[in-house]
Amino acid sequence: MFSKILIANRGEIAVRIIGTCRRLGIATVVVYSEADADSLAVELADEAVFIGGAAASESYLVADKIVAACRETGAEAVHPGFGFLSENAGFARRLADEAIVFIGPNPGAIEAMGDKIQSKLFAVKAGISVVPGHVGEIDDTDHAVRIAEEIGYPVMIKASAGGGGKGIRVAWSRQDVEEGFPAVRSEAKSSFGDDRIFIEKFIQSPRHIEIQVLGDKHGNVVHLFERECSIQRRNQKVIEEAPSPLLDEATRAAMGAQAVALAKAVAYDSAGTVEFVAGQDKSFYFLEMNTRLQVEHPVTELITGLDLVEQMIRVAYGEKLAFQQSDLKINGWAIESRIYAEDPYRGFLPSIGRLVRYAPPQEGKLGEIVVRNDAGVREGDEISMFYDPMISKLSTWAPTRLAAIDAMGRALEDFHIEGPGQNIPFLAAVMDQDRFRSGRLSTNYIKDEFPQGFHGTSPTDFQRDLMAAVACAMHTTLTARSAPQLVRDEWVVIENGERRLVRLANGGDAFRIEFLGEDRRLSLTEIAWTPGQPVFRGRLDGTAFTAQVKPLAEGFAVRHRAASAHVLVLTPRSAELHEKLPPKQAADTSKMILSPMPGLVVSLDVAVGQEVKTGEQVAIVEAMKMQNIIRAERDGTVKTVGAVAGASVAADEVLVEFA
Prior knowledge:
28% of the residues lie in helices and 34% in strands. By secondary structure, the protein is an alpha+beta fold. The protein folds into five domains: 4-103, Rossmann fold (3-Layer(aba) Sandwich), CATH 3.40.50; 132-201, 2-Layer Sandwich (Dna Ligase, domain 1); 332-456, ATP-grasp fold, B domain (D-amino Acid Aminotransferase, Chain A, domain 1, 2-Layer Sandwich); 461-578, Glycoprotein, Type 4 Pilin (2-Layer Sandwich), CATH 3.30.700.30; 592-658, CATH 2.40.50.100. The strands form nine sheets. Strands 14-13-10-11-12-15-23-21-20 form a nine-stranded antiparallel beta sheet. α4 packs antiparallel against α5.
């Protein structure tokens, strides 16, 4: 077995690989950029080598620096993780020339399957059905427009070397192609060092199902069943599960057989994923192959009991697979939620900043369920604009799908993050939706279920009671500490404007709560909260819950899953006076164009005095390798310009003001 492995990656996947190597007794080396000098991966690895600036093009994408780090440390092999150089055949060959083992597939397989254009050509030759489209390189924007109009809208513009949802745009019109093609080419160049683009028909309302394959260097290939990855935003997966609620045994076997046949045809010898587009009728055809470890591999590990990183290492070392297809069985169900530094209330735009608080849920086997959190951060770390905004991957396993979903809902409740925006409320909302729980999925799920964007969910009756009870308990605890003479039994609770008269009894770690006028009594027990804590745990009438809480200048902010409320706890007289207060007026920003996210201004396309029409491009702001085109929402004359190309801007910073 290898004695030392270099990990040519960062973040959670670097930490994940370190964990397996430690278990196998293999020393680890990580490379790191300027932005990652204080990262968790650097702390955990046995050795760390600095390789350059924060931009990936100056560090993680520079093969010479990776090879030099291997020479410096004596690493015998390189695990590339996912992204960066993981699907770069030239890098794999370079390592072979240097007598360094690449922990991934052979370069021929990478070239045949990892390149999106070549993989489609190969699949067509092999007689496998593929998505209709232009299988070949595209010269320029005019060429892209001609191809799109030949195929018929909508089309998908994709980077040949793409992955992780980057370098993809859906075009519904000629204008979308004219603007989207150069944007995708730019993203592809900056993210993958390869600006080749192809165009294919965009299939509406499909399901995204992928088969995990694993091969060795002795001609053995198996599949480890499927994952469904249909809950996506911006063409990037958000929630994955294994197995798929769509497939029956016959369809699963057919997809698995095709995936294995394709892998064998290119002598595939590592972990990889064959992706399919599937119809609701269980029809399917080949989309692409990812010749690397996938972000969502934990759900496959949870249902099979295999460590895919370990299998990749053993295969790279030359070992045969220790099992055959007949040895593999699906055990239970697993769900993965990707915790992103992004604001779901702003269209899932990336968010950056310091993790002021980071408290994941308890991991391990908890009764009949398993909770797993793959993370590369700790409290106090910075979420940088230079890389993917994923904070961690939260996975749950249970004997059944509904039990795994319920476990995920509770784990998301227990996950507390402060600092950058994060998508936990959105993920929790999905776990509670009847459509998701019934397995009626498609890649349009988010657009279908949240057509006006995500704005949280309305509290259920249980959540209304929970928020009122939590606020009363917090208020009583704080009052007893600061002014015990003011503690009373009856309060008026105002919850998002709704008034309720409440009577409390007892205190400490348990309250009896009576809603006067509603003839209802509840018990709030097992309270785990002290002033200053941002999380309130307890049981409401026996149901365990965790709420995110924050005292405000007036009242409390309480969030349970995706439902939030501003809750006031007042005396009857204070409640009377509160009704007389005038409502606060929001600031008028109708004449301003604000940056929707923190990031870098790539271009600012208007000047003072310029006439601008509705829909006209005003600026491009980039963060986490994603370019966001900002358009005017009204006609007007530019009065002031608040930024310049190359400048960093904060969310809601004024870019342009109209007269």
